[in-house]
Amino acid sequence: MTTHPQRRQTLAEAFEARFGTPPELWCRAPGRVDLMGSHTDYNLGAVLTLPIGRDTWIAASPNHTRSVRLHSLNLHTDASFDLDTADRNADQPWINYIHGVAEELKAEGLPLVGFDGVIHSTVPLSSGLSSSAALECAAATVFEALGGWHLEPLQKALLCQRAENRFVGVNCGILDQFTSTMGQDGCALLLDCRDLSGQPVAIAHGLSIVICDTRSKRELAGTEYGERRAQCEAGARLLGASALREVTPEQFAAREHELPAMVAKRCRFIIGEHARVYALATALANGDREAIRQLTAASFDGACHLYEIAAPAMHSMMAAMLAAPGVIGARQAGAGFGGCMIALVESASVDDFAAAVRTHYAAATGTEPEIYPVTAAAGAGLI
User: Fold this and answer.
1) Among candidates 140, 193, 134, 132, which has minimal Cα distance to 164?
2) Is the pTM for the entire model greater than 0.85?
3) Contacts of 356 (CB under 8 A, 6+ apart)
4) Same domain, 72 and 85
5) Residue 222's pLDDT is what?
6) Do 183 and 242 fall into the same domain?
7) Do 158 and 240 belong to one domain?
8) What is the CA radius of gyration of the chain?
9) Residue 232 has pLDDT above 60, yes or no
10) Domain that holds residue 180
11) Which of 135, 165, 200 is the last residue of a domain?
12) Within a domain: residue 134?
């Protein structure tokens, strides 16, 4: 399914095989990668984020019932739920992302229509590229189209975030859903998580963004993510701020000694990372290679030693990326703990870079990585 026509035909054939008719509509929503801003979103800071061409598609038709019946081509499985119940599915947890969206839309008083759907995603699962947000935002777009009402992109993002917080049980910030609904072709987004504003950021000619997937899966519903968030919130309270975003590096340096050692480490990373977001936005627009190198290196160093979200596979991938031809800078992506990483690479060297990283990483780990360039994509909508 490497091209849109092939992908569309495959989904249409799968839909007709299961439900007996062709699908009536098609929706998509992109994944995303953060170029800078690990864990700054729930601290109400800024994130430099990129909606990517890897996306989730849903082919759907109304089924004139109160049920949503779905088949995942990625997982080779079926699942369903009733629009009039709020029971979570422990056996097929992936459908809870869609059911949660339905619950939030119902809470807004929006009429929902039962539908049949086939899902296919090119966003790798559990890799840090927001496969869950892409699924949520694509599902919300299906409900919107079939229900005959309209959501503004930001409203859709907030509803999908609430679905993941309340129904799925992951206390995520707004980053993933905002990027998936608000994306623009050809631009990164500078997201301010305090006022939920976003502005496009140009990427200078000659720079390419390459995803380097360690193929070491992440799971965010566990304790590590929640612990980091709680430590940041504790630090903000002790510093007299409502969120760490309000604390400047100078203010933190003057009062760091007042914090418990572990809380201080977490806060130091977030406050420095927030400043790096704005610096990288400028560096990308200007094509400032040296600034890109320094900023990405500082981000990964902080992720390892201050926020402690690195995993062995990430260290192996970092070594492979930094040794490859054409690399400008590299860092973690998403929440860490495995998953994907990113490199900024000279566009003329992308193929050589990818080949070298594959060889180096496979030799070091015994695992074949996935390496691919990505470009900025539009936000969720009908195909």
Assistant:
1) 132
2) yes
3) 320, 323, 324, 325
4) yes
5) 55
6) no
7) no
8) 21
9) yes
10) 4-200
11) 200
12) yes
Residue 23, domain CATH? 3.30.230.10
What is the per-residue pLDDT across 43-85, written as a single tens digit (0 to 9) for each? Answer: 999 999 999 999 999 999 999 999 999 999 999 999 999 999 9
Which residue, 279, 251, 252, 245, is CA-closest to 268? 252
Average pLDDT over residues 253-281: 97
* Count of domains forming the chain: 2
> 219: pLDDT confidence band, cut at 50, 70 and 90?
low
Structure tokens at 118: 């086939």
Distance CA 112, CA 148 (A): 9
Nearest in space to 218 (alpha carbons), one of 304, 127, 134, 310: 127
Exposure class string for 80-112: b at 16+ Cβ within 10 A, else e: bbebeeeeeeeeeebbbbbbbbbbbbeeeebeb
Alpha-carbon distance values, 40 to 228, 300, 361 (Å): 11, 14, 29
What is the per-residue pLDDT for 221? 42
Closest CA to 345 of 382, 308, 373: 373
For residue 60, the 8-state DSSP code is E
Q: Beta strand 197-201 with 77-82: parallel, antiparallel or unpaired? A: unpaired
Q: What is the DSSP string of 99-123?
A: HHHHHHHHHTT-----EEEEEEE-S
Q: Read off the tokens for 129.
A: 């590229």
Asked if the structure places residue 14 within a domain, the reply is yes
In a domain, 160, yes or no: yes
Active-site residues, by number, are 176
3-class secondary-structure state, position 53: strand
